[in-house]
Amino acid sequence: EQAEKDGYEHYMLKEIYEQPRALRNTMTGRIDEAGQQIVFPDLQLSTETVKGIEKIYIVACGTAYHAGMIGKHVIESLAQIPVEIDVASEFRYRRPLFKGKTLTIVVSQSGETADTLAALREAKRNGSSILAITNVVGSSIAREANHLITTNAGPEIAVASTKAYTSQLIAFYLLGLYLAQEKETLPSEERKSLIAALQKLPEQVETVLAHAEGIHTFAQSIKDEGHLFFIGRGLDYAVSQEGSLKLKEISYIHSEAYAAGELKHGTLALIQEGTRVIALSTQAELHEKMVSNITEVKARGANVLGIALEDNVELHRSVDDVCLIPSTDALLTPILSVIPLQLIAYYTSVALGNDVDRPRNLAKSVTVE
Ligand code: G6P
């Protein structure tokens, strides 16, 4: 087992550090040589079919669901197709309306999650076409879907998902760009510049990983906390949810991810002297609003770690600590901002002496409903 961990103390850490390679693998063969077009040789979606899609459902569980939240944002903004997202165990029983031409995207690292598989079957029974995003080629979900995008991240062993999540995000970026290309909803110059930014991400993840020393100290400082808050807006809110889940899964510290603008409608009552808050602010157009939310929690005594793009010097003034990530297109920041959150969860779990790779009560793949 030690050999399989490649010298890393845990599979989770190994998988966090494998992300640059995993992301490159997800992109391989899916971008043309000139970097101008998305080519999806394995996706049997003709231009005509793409143009006919009236609505998309995204269905998944756990971390894959959090990837889907980003996917919704990406597809709606690039391809202008309305997207509804649900956790698989809810989707199945709420009788979703399959009117017109729908595409249901099921996201699953293992391809075997029982609730996700059941949701796939329910959507199929209702006449929807199914596209699976999975890491396991021969899995049940891969076999039962009509269309398949494999993430090619390599086997993920740690229960807490890391490289599968970021490679699912890459799959969504490629898919969003592909749908936009076929529907002609995005000027080709914008597509090219997004593709270039996408291709830079693996290297930028390496940069984030190489400057992660401060995270050990931060993890030490939160390990005895009873609860924590993650706040963000838009894509940052979706990433906050993944960061909060990671921390709960392996450190067993309670945390809550909150849409920053919603705090004042209730949760702000829980903020008191010394409450630890992790605030994500990577979206330039939402930055001012985030600063005012940070000021709101600081005024009640919160201690805030800000996660922001390197060119955002303004944020320094409003937080106690800051973790900077390289600049990229606003749509692509989740790939970079989630890395410090994965490391915070990892080092906190290590500091507490928990079984990082096999957290209590959880399984890597849940094959019961
Ligand atoms: C389990 C794992 C989670 C995972 C979820 C969905 O609960 O512990 O890490 O996100 O299943 O798994 P899937 O294989 O469908 O992505």
TrEMBL record:
It catalyses: D-fructose 6-phosphate + L-glutamine = D-glucosamine 6-phosphate + L-glutamate. It comes from the Bacteria. Keywords: Aminotransferase, Cytoplasm, Glutamine amidotransferase, Repeat, Transferase. Its EC number is 2.6.1.16. The keyword Cytoplasm applies. This is Glutamine--fructose-6-phosphate aminotransferase [isomerizing]. Residues 46-185, 218-359 form the SIS domain. GO terms for molecular function: transaminase activity. The chain holds residues 242 to 610 of 610 of the full protein. Homodimer. The keyword S-adenosyl-L-methionine does not apply. Catalyzes the first step in hexosamine metabolism, converting fructose-6P into glucosamine-6P using glutamine as a nitrogen source. The gene is glmS. Its main location: cytoplasm. The active site is at residue 364. It is an enzyme of class 2 (transferase). It is found in: Cytoplasm.
